[in-house]
Amino acid sequence: MAAIKVHGHVISTATQRVLATLYERELEFEFVAVNMGAGEHKKEPFISLNPFGQLPALEQGDLKLFESRAITQYIAHWYGDKGTKLVATGPKMATVSVWMEVEAHQFDPVASKLNWELTFKPMFGLTTDAAVVEENEAKLVKVLDIYEARLSRSKYLGGDDFTLADLHHLPNTACLLRTQCKKLFDERPHVSAWVADIMARPAWSKVIAMQTKQ
Amino acid sequence: MALKLYGTSVSASTSRAMTCLYEKGVEFEFVSVNLFAGEHKQPPFLAKNPFGQIPVLEDGDLTLFESRAITAYVAEKFKETGYDLMRHNNVEEAALVKVWVEVEGQRYNPAIAPIVYQFFVAPLQGKSPVQTIIDENSEKLAKVLDIYEAKLSTSKYLAGDFYSLADLHHLPYTFYLMETPVASVINERPHVKAWWEDISSRPAFQKVAAGMTFGGK
């Protein structure tokens, strides 16, 4: 099969989602760093890979994919058979799908807004909006309360095994843990244990190592 | 035992799940949830979906929520019957379907849902539509649709020259949008307009649209 190329940036949470998946599946790939500062992602040739001008994109032969969660599913479902399975079959996959959607529609919008205000705005010299932080912390609390209940009955979100449903949370969670939001995770014992578990995975450590190399 | 779908006929998310069931020709029992009585926020329903939202699908012991997880399950379980929504026999096409399913979920939906909410749901709660929310999101939606216009000038549907789950997921919210002045974002883009007319005329969606009477039509 043709080689995999990932176009992205090591600080992009969506890129990290894809990198974690490739490392979990022990797949070889070429990483092509996209110069966001120079607006490379908004111009050709990147735009031909992703017309929405966002990172990451995956190229494999003629196949061009974008949207990190579509890429992770492609890698997990159809590509290679080494490493961590990350998906399931039949009714078990249905439950994994549910919690993948929960990450995408309940967790991510809130976590992304908080990370933008608390992590990225300061990085770019912009002012944090306290009202947005307060509003989204309240939303995050509601989501994490549901996670706490779920994780008291299930080792991982999708079931007994680590899957994409858990993995998709890694990049934004890692960011949030470096902000005032850390306490919201720490205060919930099952959530806290789950976070510690998924962040200790070797594949995730490899993603972190890519950041420190920059 | 037949599948049970919990929701309401006017709910866009419920309609998404129902359209998929009809496309696959799958028998199901529809169980109406009394949103006005707050049924979805009370313990019996919360045991099915802790987020207190419709729809919910029950298949024997399996309980699912999140409309796009429900459609993915139905499309996969019944992949050998009805319309081929996920292109399961072709890895590349299946991957492209996933891409445009994510585009709907991550780009299209966040822009269109607030517009539909302001026009249809806010009035039910005694509130006037907030024009700034409509305007901001109409602008976002227009930018997304510019990209759709370019894509749909190179392929008949979003993932390729085949109708797929990616197109289906757009149906319910777009249906409501077309009943508002913001319909112009669709009508002004010829390929998007042609795509919309095609996908919304499919019998499976026509069945569902008959119950989507939010606008009081």
From TrEMBL, chain A:
CDD domains membership: GST_C_Phi, GST_N_Phi
Places the protein is found: Cytoplasm, Cytosol
Domain GST N-terminal: residue ranges: 2-83
Keyword Aminoacyl-tRNA synthetase recorded: no
Gene Ontology molecular function: glutathione binding; glutathione transferase activity
The family this protein is said to belong to: Belongs to the GST superfamily. Phi family.
Protein name (record): glutathione transferase
Automatic annotation (TrEMBL), chain B:
Pfam families: GST_C (PF00043), GST_N (PF02798)
Keywords: Cytoplasm, Detoxification, Transferase
SUPFAM superfamilies assigned: GST C-terminal domain-like, Thioredoxin-like
GO cellular component, one term: cytosol
GO molecular function, one term: glutathione transferase activity
Record family assignment: Belongs to the GST superfamily. Phi family.
Identification of the protein by name: glutathione transferase
Organism: Rhizophora mucronata (Asiatic mangrove)
